[in-house]
Amino acid sequence: MGFFANALLSILILAVAGFIGFGLLFVFIGRNLPDPNALQDRSVAQSTKIYDRTGEHLLYEIHGDQNRTLVPLSDIPPQVVKAFLSAEDDDFYAHSGIDVRGIVRAMLANTLSGSKSQGASTLTQQLVKNAILSPEKTYTRKLKEIILSLKIEQRYSKDEILQLYFNEIPFGSTNYGIESAAQSYFGKPASKLTLAEGATLAAMVKAPTRYLNNPDQLAFRRDRILDAMVEDGFITQGDADAAKQAEAMVERVDGDIVAPHFIFYVKQLLEEEYGQRLVEEGGLKVTTTIDYDLQTLAQDEVKKAVEERGKPMRFSNAALVALDPKNGHILAMVGSHNYFDEESDGAVNVTLRPRQPGSSMKPMAYTALFEKGYTPNTVLYDVETDFVGTTGTYHPRNYNLSEQGPVTARTALQGSLNIPAVKALYLVGVDAFLDFAERMGYTTLSDRSRFGLSLVLGGGEVTLLEHTSAYATLANEGVRHETMSMLKVETRDADVLFEWKDSAGERVLDENLARTLTNVLSDDAARAFTFGAGSQLVLGDRPVAAKTGTTNDYRDGWTLGYTPSLVVGVWTGNNDNTEMVRGADGSIVAAPIWNAVMRGGLAGTPIETFEGPIVPQLGKPALDGTLGSGQVVTVDRVSGLLATEDTPIRLRENKVFVTHHTILHYVNRDDPFGPEPGGSSSDPQYAGWESAVQNWVQRQEALLGAAFVNEEPPTEY
Prior knowledge:
Layout: H1 2-31, H2 38-41, E1 48-51, E2 58-62, H3 78-88, H4 100-113, H5 123-131, H6 139-155, H7 158-166, H8 178-186, H9 195-204, H10 208-212, H11 215-231, H12 237-244, H13 260-274, H14 276-281, E3 285-288, H15 292-313, E4 317-324, E5 329-334, H16 362-371, E6 379-382, E7 387-389, E8 392-394, E9 405-408, H17 409-414, H18 418-428, H19 430-439, H20 464-475, E10 479-480, E11 486-490, E12 496-499, E13 506-507, H21 511-521, H22 524-531, E14 545-550, E15 556-562, E16 567-573, H23 586-589, H24 591-602, H25 621-624, E17 631-636, E18 652-657, H26 686-704
Parallel strand pairs: 1-3
Antiparallel strand pairs: 1-2, 3-11, 4-5, 4-16, 6-9, 7-8, 10-13, 11-12, 14-15, 15-16, 17-18
């Protein structure tokens, strides 16, 4: 008996010592554990949500490593909650945080197998593992998990624990929490999940990556969970059988992004203002300026144009910007025909890339010209001319290599004639025009040493966004607004970080000057000799101002135009700057996109008209444009000289004299309203311009003979 008593005493002593030792270890480990209260106080990474201007359409969620949106437990359908309970912890509402039998069973299994693969984790333990502790598998960490789970069960109610759990658990890829998983895999909020979808997500939790890549295994585990729900009394056998008929397939819809180029443009602006961490983890709500319907239409039209006309015309890309001219809001931004097309660098946002604008820059030069005192009626000879420069002679030619002779500035602009446009820029002055361009919002023309007279034909590079914004200033009668992409930025707690306020904008052009340009750009009859009447630049009965542009060698095709409430700019070409086919000018490749988006964007809206300009009479024929139509002079029929008071009435004759001289014959470039320099002009371009005009006169006289009128009026009596 003494031996057995001693043995029993030894066992008892060892048991007590083990219990005391385990208790001391329990206390020692538990002493340095995180406070369970911090579960609700901690900052959980949440995705930033980008919405359209109505706040109804979610365009995208910006996130870092964790894409998460917090939702209350009440938003999760009860059957979905029960699917997770049956799958992971059917005793959840009965235990105190741990499953003692499960832990013992797991310890025995791990001891026999020599591994640590058996976890025996309750939902509370899974919450601790994902939200508080590191993921390594050690007995020490497991003990910490047990202690924290017990403390959490004492601190929080079961529903509070469930809510924390559903917002924390990973579902594969960057999806954390059930809301992100529902949106990513089923394209719907968690509140709309069906029983089959809820069971599918519950099946994924155990090993998300494995089940994402093995739909058969996912279906098998989902069906087992549905059977378990029947055994647990959560659903009927009929419910389970019906749910099993649904396909157990999850599709990653993370790439389903509306307005991708615009989204990442906004993301960059947000990060510059608030920092990357807040944008990716702060759960911001951003209401943008995007018009969802117009954006969708623009994307469809750009894509269709590249798919249908891109191959024969040899352009692989297109881009579009739509603005509200009254406030600068970006209503649509399409940076390429397909953001995900790596072959054509689809992720590049061409609306922000400098490209040569071709003739679409001409309206800006003519605006500066009219601001200097010239008018749409001023005659600028469209004849082949040598322009003298510091680096040699510049000899521009028209698109179709023709000459139109004396044309008004209105006709020259609408017909997109190159030679008069170069003359217009010279009359303005390159430096003065660059000052003007800066006032209109262009930022890419800062290196003035690079530019000469070819600038008006697209010799400088501009971005589609800034170019469209400049046209918006014309549409808004000279008042410029900075382009705006966001209406409101709020924190996860609904604190407002930014909210757009309407402003008067900045007047950069005289109202009548802007109206004058609009009057010219909306004159379809004036462009008919080049583009034909009723081209893609008109919108039926709706007044619209528009201009195309094409660069040398057909590398860029543009169309920009506007009504009082909508401005759209379109670019077409190739990102690598390769040429399109000959003839692929802006009116062919870009105008159809522009026309379709303008029509769609304005459908159902009232027809707006442009306010007409006041046409000033400057009192100088060269500026008013009365020289080219002839000068009526009363002459003496016998002498051919000017008639006097003494000339008999029967010998008086009103005769029309048409003379042909360059504009520099009548005006001083630096002082258009000053005295006429005539043939003594000291302007360095005068000789070349006048020679070109007289050579054209000689060719016309040889061609037409007496039918061509070129006669100087008499100056003596």
